[in-house]
Amino acid sequence: MEAAKRVVRAQGIHRHHVARIDLRAFGGSALTDDIDVPKGRDDEAIGEGIPITYVPARNTIFLAHALALAEVEGANDIFIGVNALDYSGYPDCRPEYIEAFQRMANLATKAGVEGESPLTIHAPLQNLTKAGIVELGTRLGVDYADTLSCYDPPGGAGDFTHCGECDACRLRRKGFQEAGIFDPTVYRA
Questions:
Q1: How far is Cα 175 from Cα 166, in angstroms, rounded to an integer?
Q2: CA torsion, ordered 31, 26, 60, 55, to nearest 10 deg
Q3: What's the CATH number where 43 sits?
Q4: Number of domains comprising the chain
Q5: Which regions of the chain are under pLDDT 50?
């Protein structure tokens, strides 16, 4: 939450809506249950199958909340930061999933049914490599020191230290290296 607040402030976002969603109610993932986060996997292992860090229906839940807020606000555009290239095998990051949710959203909303402006789900990072994401963020002025992507951060709230060993840390580090851009991330390992 602290990382999100910092990014919002830095980017000059005028409204930041926070919905408290506790995915631990469902469990089933190393990110939401009492299951160890895998560490030290190589690129081949990271890209193989659906890992235990997959959170069941996470993006469906997030998009459903965003859809409800968009409908109330009269917004036609929802943005999500999923990535389908250098990703860890999550099925809800694939283009087919985003396209299917968009079709469903236009069937399930008043605006869609009444023929008003259709809702569009934008996934601008979906077809970028991690290096491409780092490059784009750098061009847009993202201070990556204010971001957190670690699956098992060692610090508490407000501490942006990354473990350095989980899949997310390994992919993040690789993205900076391949982009040739300084990585301001503090890694424990």
A1: 14
A2: 20
A3: 3.40.50.620
A4: 1
A5: none
